[in-house]
Structures are given as C-alpha cells and as structure tokens.
Amino acid sequence: MKFRMAENSVFAVLLRSQWWISFVVAAGVVVVTQSLVPVEYRNLASMGAFPFVVIGCIAFARQWREPGEKESETLLAQARAMAWPAFEAALRRGFEREGRQVRPATGGADLLLEGKGGPTLVSARRWKAARHGEEAVQALAKAMRAQDVGRGAYVALGELTPQAAKLAREEGIEVLGGAALVKLLRA
User: Where is the Restriction endonuclease type IV Mrr domain (predicted)?
Assistant: First the structure.
C-alpha cells in the first residue's frame, strides 16, 4: 500500500514553500508551548515542533539541488537561442538522464519516451513560440490517440492560451516549461 500526502495539507504546503518557513513554524510551536503549557509538560509539548523541523530539512534538501533564478534564466535564454537539432539533442540528454529511452516519433509528436510509467509522446518543435495555441496541443492529442499512447508532454517556453491549457489538462498532456524545462535541460 502506497501512502500519498494530501495535496493541501500543512506539510504538503510547507514542502512546496521555502525551507526556512518550516523552521519558523517550528519555532512558533515551541514559543507557544513554552508559554501556555504547564512547566512539567513543556519539553514534551515542544516535541510537537519536530515534524516541522523534519519537513524543513526535507524542503532544504530538495531546494538545495534546484537551480537558482539566475541559472534558470540563463538556461531558458540558451534554449531560446538554440536551433531545433541542438534543442532536440538537449531534450534527449535530459530524458536519458531521467532513465528513459528516447526514439523519434511520427505524427504530431517529435519524440517517443519509453520507461518510467509507460510510453510518452513529446511535442517540442514549437518550443520558441511566445504563445501556444490549441492546434499544437490538439495535434499531440491526436498523435497520442493514433499511436495508442496514454501520456503526452508538450514543451513550451511561452505560455499556452487558456483553451490550449484546458485541452492539455483534459487530454492528460503535461506541459514542460519554466522550472520543469530547466530541470530537464540542466546538465
């Protein structure tokens, strides 16, 4: 049985927040317990801050490995400047680092990924566009149906139109842009 944390629980929110916030919450718990709990139970009550310290340590470890804002901007600027063959090679290396096998795809997709949860079709050729419309996402969805692939990924440096974003959600297409793309392209 695999346990999954509720998406909006206090601990899940703290894991997505800056690491130091968990330590501030832990300190707040200690201050409140030290001031409100009878003297003989203060130390025991202060142990209620321990889970927040653990979450803070986990968040710190995760954020330590994440690229900084300046590195992210640099990588995205480099991606904008790349020609398609260089960008495709960078994507291939990123997916292979994740343990996936990368093959060329046909139809409305550019790459076929195998491994890690089954096959995934990736559409990336329009990555430089400032706005991505419904047609491009629809082409990927059509390719997914034609090739009987349940997962898709659309690579975009720019934003998707509201209709394209809605279609991506409905079709189960993951949009790789911003932080997700930086993580993939990072050597």
Answer: 80-185
